[in-house]
Give the backbone structure.
Amino acid sequence: MPIPKKINYIGSDYTVELESKVTAKSGSMGLVDHAEQAIYINCDISPQMQAETCLHELVHVIDNKFAIELDETQVLRLSMGFYGLLRENPKLVQALME
Ligand SMILES: [Zn+2]
């Protein structure tokens, strides 16, 4: 399933855009612009990496929303941890959605 073009999080609508300029802009696979409420994901990586990158950028959104002040390594580890947890437990994801 493709990544949705809009993600709502606690009253904020974030747009999600796939583009090839992301790497040049940020030196990474994704980028979040909190002021513009926009997430940019490199379109040249695999769909699975795009999804994982989107989750990573959403951890940045949560960090920003709650003023947690995570550093990049913490964001990376949290997003990898959640990605693995959600991927390996589809029944848990279903239960969370009910
Ligand atoms: Zn990051």
About this structure: The mean pLDDT is 92.
